[in-house]
Write a structure and sequence with these properties.
The complex is a heterodimer of chains A (235) and B (282). Chain A is α/β, with parallel strands linked by helices and 235 residues long. Helices cover 40% and strands 27% of the residues of chain A. In chain A, the strands form 2 sheets. Chain A has a 6-stranded mixed sheet, sandwiched between helices. A 3-stranded antiparallel sheet of chain A has the order 2-1-4, covered by helices on one side. Chain B contains 12 helices and no strands. The chains are: A alpha/beta (235), B mainly alpha (282).
């Protein structure tokens, strides 16, 4: 079990100030880490830092992986975008293309495999904007798998989905994790986090509140407090 | 039938008619290719802004009395494209406001320059032909045509080579950045070729109608087609056909070229809206 990401006393911020500090956690291969935190707790900056798009203001981030498949939050542009599922999934291969202008045979078959894997092969010629929210997330997951097949970083993937689609997506992600893919997920959903994740990182009010296994989280004071609050919010 | 024969006759007899067709169709093709990306990236107005900048630069060129105006117009427009794109990201003035500012500012300064330093007796006529293109496409010289062909070939080649990347950057910039694609560089490429197309198109439809040339074929194609490739191809076909029909009609009935082409584009857009309502696709 190699350690793929090591964060040591990392602080993150912009010129205007620090948004989070004292982040201290590791992600090993095969882990399912759920990052919990309220809005403004620095989650999205942490995501950028993990992707290597934002330099830490202090501390050390060691990234020992070759590639990471990213599932960003949906944008307004995408909702009415005229593109077929196949076109979108294939675009996941572009990071590997380098200066090649077109997709190679290998990349095209990788795209087909990943569509099979996520059960969307039948939708290949359908238009992205006509799919349901859950189907759209599967398409973006397949694209992320084309970019990297050992680690996925998912930014609030279930936002805006109905409860059934949320459960389906959680089950799908759990299956990918069982198949050996390291998962890092940013989420609001405490209950699903303790149900599916192996590890939990909670950040709040600019600092790290908890890092450890999901079991320990449920026993901890802060975990019980948030689970109670999260449960109340769901009812 | 008679009209067609007259047209064929013009085409054979007068080189300027052939030039007009060559330039018109190439510009229509280039603008439609870019239009899809620009509309989807919510940059529809960048065409408008840049075309006004080009108008301002054109006024400066007219005042200085340069014969080849492209020497000034092209660099200024390219520079503005880069600046506008910069302002799109995390600056104090947001993208849409920056476009509005530059566009209106360039228009005002250009018009003022043309009035203060009139290069000919007919200022209103000059302004009108720069803004609406009136007949300048029928007064092209061979050197204009050569320049236009070279630039069109560059634009089309860049678009084909970077087609997949342009698609990816249009669809999802964050994902591109995360997978190591230099999204900023491709945005820059898009902005630069947009600027080039706008400078080209000024001769055809004038600066005011350039946006229409960029937006309408793309929007029409999006009514009916489900894939990105389909939309691009359809938009190119619509744009080229409308340009051809527009130029023919304007020669036959002596209507302004730019407005005639745009009217044809609007007609196609309405037809496609109707079709999509009937077919319930989209």
């Amino acid at each position: 079990m190699g350690e793929e990401i090591i964060c040591e006393q990392v602080s993150l911020g912009y010129e205007t100030g620090i948004v989070a500090e004292g982040l201290d956690f590791t992600v090993s291969s095969g882990d399912y880490l759920c990052i919990l935190g309220e809005n403004g707790s620095g989650k999205s900056t942490l995501v950028k830092a993990l992707l290597g798009l934002h330099r830490a203001a202090g501390g050390n981030i060691t990234r020992n992986f070759s590639g990471i498949g990213y599932l960003p939050q949906q944008t307004v542009v995408q909702r009415d975008f005229p593109a077929t599922v196949r076109e979108i999934v294939r675009s996941g291969c572009l990071g590997k293309c380098g200066m090649h202008p077109f997709y190679t045979k290998q990349e095209r078959s990788l795209a087909e495999q990943n569509m099979q894997r996520l059960g969307i092969a039948a939708l290949a010629r359908r238009c992205y904007r006509n799919l349901s929210g859950g189907q759209q997330q599967r398409v973006l997951l397949a694209r992320a798998l084309c970019a990297a097949d050992s680690m996925l970083l998912l930014d609030e993937p279930v936002t805006g989905l109905d409860p059934k689609a949320q459960t389906d997506l959680y089950e799908l992600i759990a299956r990918l994790n069982r198949e050996g893919i390291t998962i890092i997920m940013v989420s609001h959903d405490v209950r699903a986090a303790v149900q599916y994740a192996s590890h939990i990182l909670q950040i709040g009010a600019k600092k790290q509140l908890f890092f450890g296994t999901a079991e320990d989280y449920q026993k901890s004071e802060i975990g019980q407090k948030f689970l109670a609050a999260g449960g109340a919010a769901h009812e | 039938m008679n009209e067609l024969r007259t047209l064929a006759d013009y085409f054979i007899r007068y080189p300027f008619v052939r030039y007009a067709f060559a330039v018109g169709l190439l510009i229509a093709l280039c603008s439609s290719l870019l239009g899809v990306t620009l509309v989807l990236k919510r940059f529809s107005f960048i065409g408008d802004g840049l075309s006004h900048v080009a108008f301002g630069a054109m006024a400066v060129a007219a005042v200085t009395g340069l014969t080849n105006k492209t020497v000034i117009v092209l660099p200024v427009t390219l520079l503005s494209a880069v600046l506008l794109l910069r302002t799109g990201q995390n600056t104090k003035i947001k993208g849409d406001a920056a476009i509005a500012m530059i566009s209106v500012g360039a228009l005002a300064i250009g018009y003022m320059l043309m009035n203060v330093f009139p290069s000919s007796g007919n200022v209103t006529g000059d302004v009108c032909s720069t803004l609406f293109g009136s007949t300048s496409i029928l007064t092209l010289k061979k050197s204009d045509v050569t320049l236009c062909v070279i630039m069109a070939v560059i634009v089309i080649a860049v678009f084909l080579l970077f087609y997949n990347k342009i698609f990816a950057v249009t669809f999802d910039e964050s994902f591109c950045r995360a997978s190591g694609i230099n999204a900023n560089a491709y945005n820059l490429v898009i902005a630069l070729i947009t600027a080039a197309v706008i400078v080209l198109a000024m001769n055809l439809v004038g600066s005011l109608l350039i946006s229409a040339l960029i937006i309408f074929p793309a929007l029409s194609a999006m009514r009916l087609f489900r894939s990105f490739r389909g939309v691009i191809l359809c938009s190119a076909v619509i744009s080229v056909l409308c340009a051809a029909v527009g130029i023919m009609l304007s020669i036959l009935f002596s209507t302004p070229v730019g407005s005639t082409i745009v009217t044809a584009d609007i007609a196609v857009f309405l037809v496609f809206c109707g079709l999509s309502a009937i077919l319930k696709r989209g």
